[in-house]
Amino acid sequence: MTAGQGESPMSPASASRSPAILLTRRRWDLYFLPAILAAAVVGACVAAATGEMRPLVGPIPLALFWWLMRAATPRDGMPALSVDADMRRLLCWFGFMLLLLLAVEVVDCYLTGREFGAPYQAYHLALQGTVLVVFFAGTLVFARRIDRRRQRESRAVP
């Protein structure tokens, strides 16, 4: 039986090729509620540290996106492809580098007394630029590994 002849995306035969998950409204809640809470806490901390109220609106776009995803998801859920291990590693790399960029910014503001969001000096660009070069180089390494693995897998499948 081919993939187009009666196999559902959740059947075991198709799961061996491309694992699928059932996206439900509850799953969206589990994804977004911790993120919205974290954005609220971070926004409150940044607002308290800087005295500006703008960071307090941080959770609003997340909450709107959460509402949009819940509204677009049918009551019974919808099948979707799962993130494979390679993509999970790449997403972790993106998150790590984003946190590193933020940490460099926060440490710089703390050590130099520069206000958060103030214009950059040349040394700021050198610091952030170095992190960005490492980010892009690492991303290229990940992409090359993923591409090689997929090429090997496509050659191994008859």
Features:
158 residues; mainly alpha; two-stranded antiparallel sheet; 5 helices; 2 strands; flat
Structure description:
The protein is mainly alpha-helical and 158 residues long. It has two domains: 1-82, no CATH class; 83-158. 69% of the residues lie in helices and 5% in strands. It has five helices and two strands. It has a two-stranded antiparallel ribbon with strand order 1-2. The protein is flat and about 60 Å long. The relative contact order is 0.09.
Domain module tally? 2
Radius of gyration: 21 Å
Secondary structure: helix percent: 55-70%
- Please work out how many helical segments DSSP would assign: 5
Describe the main β-sheet briefly. Answer: 2 strands, antiparallel
Number of strands: 2
Strand composition percent: 5-15%
Strand order, largest beta sheet: 1-2
Distance between the termini: 16 Å
Unreliable residue stretches? 1-17
Average pLDDT for all residues: 82
User: Structural class of the helix and strand makeup?
Assistant: mainly alpha
Give the oligomeric state of the chains in this entry, treating copies of one chain as homo and distinct chains as hetero.
Answer: single chain
Shape: flat
> Could you give the order of the helices and strands?
HEHHEHH
